[in-house]
Amino acid sequence: MRKVIVAFDGTHYSNGAFGLAKRLNESEKILLVGAFLPELDFSGLGYVFGGGGLYVPLQIEIDEDKVDENIQRFEDECVRNNIEFRVHKDHSPYAISKLQKESRFADLMILGSQKFYENLRLEVPSEYLRDILHDTECPVIVAPEKFDYPENVILAYDGTRSSVFAIKMFSYLFSDLCDCNTTLVYATLKHQPEMPDEDYMKELACRHFKDLTFLQLEQQEMPAFLEAISKPMLVTGAFGRSGLSNLFKRSFCTSYISEYRYPVFIAHK
Question: What SUPFAM superfamilies would the database entry show (predicted)?
């Protein structure tokens, strides 16, 4: 059994995030923690990242009736689907930094990316998401509202320890998906003669993924490759404040997440 956090921003309920948790529970029983955060309105406000967490200094809007309605919905759906659950409700200004601490004691966190962007109403939501993911202490899946359960897995590899770590964590958490068609992609700004540590990577990945293909691309070829993949899940490592690896630069990776194309699994050391 694993502990999985599914985060809701109080008044908005992510069907996609809960649907993914439901599917995970069907594969292997989980403890699902519904974390109900306040609806944060950053319009006209300053906010500060740093020190290992997010600090929200000013206003918080709370619709208690709607939050309670969503909590009841969450509880009813968990009971109906035979999911063991807990509810954590926090409306303090430090709710999100507390969520980041709780991630230290969880195996996985699921975020509904569509509602995350719409309801936080940020001018640059990708920066907000980037910083939350940077400080989370467990792997995260950013889930769109509507998607098919993955049938293809794309492993983003750039030779860094973070990308290798993400691949290992994914294989530990999603053994069922390791049987899917899987492509390990090494993409560079320009053609490189060989994949970094290719022999080591093959020794590792071939032990975990049943149907595995290795592919080397130039970065500009990535969009066309991704568009051609049916029902994918993307696995990536580096997602820090300093930007992404060569494989997924800021404007590229965040655009794919923000367009709600498919689930993205993110893990970093």
Answer: Adenine nucleotide alpha hydrolases-like
